[in-house]
Amino acid sequence: MPYGFEFGDDVASPDAAVRANVPRKIAHKTALLATIATQLRFPDYFGGNWDALEECICDLSWLPTGRVLVKHDDLPLVDDVRNAIVYVAILNSATRKMSRSEQHPLSIVFPAQYRDQVLWLLRSSESS
Q1: Does the pLDDT value for residue 1 go beyond 50?
Q2: CA 126/CA 121 separation, integer angstroms
Q3: Predicted pLDDT of residue 124
Q4: Entry pTM
Q5: Inter-residue contact 47 to 30 (CB < 8 Å)
Q6: Residues 29-44: pLDDT tens digits?
Q7: H or E, element range at 20
Q8: With contact defined as beta carbons under 8 Å apart, do 48 and 31 qualify?
Q9: I want to staple 47 with a disulfide (CB 3.0 to 4.6 A). Which of 24, 52, 80, 81 is the partner?
């Protein structure tokens, strides 16, 4: 599982306590953050910015105990490379941290056809 992500259209964690689905064609950071915040029931103090996403997705203590699955229907922010780089870097960091969590292990899934793009974004985040 490179970079802590899974790739595949049929990847699903049947044991997931909480599932979030990031729908197709999210083109703007604000829409992406709002979608994730709603689906993962982020606390009211969520600030709607990258720092707040990182803080909340690396905590998840308000959710029921068990695996948390965030499944993407495509690659969000595809026309906003700078923000897409930040997004996948935050998810990568979160999966690495939360994979050690007994309470809320985190799984991030992208469709198989976006594997190369996601990996390119991650390599770009490491070089910046």
Answers
A1: no
A2: 9
A3: 94
A4: 0.93
A5: no
A6: 999 999 999 999 999 9
A7: strand 16-22
A8: no
A9: 52
Burial of 1 (0-12, 13-18, 19+ CB in 10 A): exposed
Q: Which long-range contacts (CB under 8 A, 24 or more apart) does 93-97 make?
A: 93/54, 93/58, 94/54, 94/57, 94/58, 95/3, 95/4, 95/5, 96/4, 97/58
Give 39: exposed, middle or buried? Use CB within 10 Å, 0-12, 13-18, 19+. middle
pLDDT above 70 covers a percentage of the chain that reads 95
Residue with tokens 């599932």: 19
Contact 40, 18 (CB under 8 A): yes
Residue with tokens 């994979």: 99
pLDDT in tens, 42-74: 999 999 999 999 999 999 999 999 999 999 999
Contact present, 11 and 70 (Cβ < 8 Å): no
- How far apart are alpha carbons 77 and 31 in whole angstroms? 10
Distance CA 45, CA 53 (A): 11
